[in-house]
């Protein structure tokens, strides 16, 4: 691999973007590997450690270092040794709040490096100079996170901000950031394709302006924080604007949080391909009317928490299930199993590739019906333990009734459940899988870190899994905790 050209190595290394340990190992191979992997390690500032911020401070221009020094922040202003790389230029994903918070932590951890008498003032000064560094050095930022303005800095006015932000494709922000920020961004960014807004008690005036000037908004996420009283929902303020400006371009819509908004406006986005409804504690207002709306392009439907009668959801699936490729129901904590809904999935959702749902102990025949009717199914997440199917029942049904496309099984464990899968039962599953499928499989376990015990808790089961990994039958085995499951 060391003789591969740089562009090939770059494509290979992209598969390790989420694997910081492997990327750090690549740094040590040779100069070329180091040059490629360092760009990925510095791509997302959310992955930065404290040492990254020390490095960023050393990368500051002398003018910025002089400002820090004059404010009692002790850093070297000499030109003794420049950093090996222009690290700031590699950043593609930037979180403004994380920069401020990490600089504050840097103060707290390293009193020798930075002498601080007034934590807030000095944090502000250092963070401001780092913002300036990013604005001047990042050639084209892709994604920006900016929630609740703790820094009071309008970084969009800094030199280089226009070039840095002009190609921004994804913005994640809160509704109460200063209007000056939104207005400045409206002048720079007209091609944001993904916009995620967390609505606080106030909507800045500039937010509407930013929404209005976007030319091709495709993905929209609206999260309502706790309202002061029923009906006090700031999402309502921008719905007419969203409909008038983006009814024909929007293909992905995510509504979440403490919702109290009529869902009828969703019907205006006829080109939706993905819809997620994830509300904390309110009914899906007007879903009784939305159930009859047809979305001809809808392919992905996610409803983690159910606050609507299954009868309404069944009608919605009858109208929209034929084109669905992915359906996730009840991925949140609670009882979200309904046999009548699962029967409708088997009948009206024949093109599913991915499915997440639950089956009670007496509903194994329904699981089998889904496995037989959904011939394109590639991945299935099944709730296990307690009142749900056992691991043994789930695995036996999958291997016996699924079609040739299925290659991923996800077992989702309820709280306080104990695995009952015996080693010989797991061995039997793998033996039957080889005999019937003759393809490799991914096996993923999702559980609570403290209060559920899945098959990975048994040493003999793990020995069996490791053996089949070596044989190439299991291409991926992974244990994920609830809080890490997206």
Automatic annotation (TrEMBL):
GO CC terms in record: SCF ubiquitin ligase complex
Domain of life: Eukaryota
InterPro entries, A to Z: LRR_dom_sf
Entries under PANTHER family matching the protein: F-BOX PROTEIN YLR352W, PARTNER OF PAIRED, ISOFORM B-RELATED
UniProt record, GO biological process: SCF-dependent proteasomal ubiquitin-dependent protein catabolic process
Coiled-coil ranges (or none): none
Protein name (Swiss-Prot/TrEMBL): F-box domain-containing protein
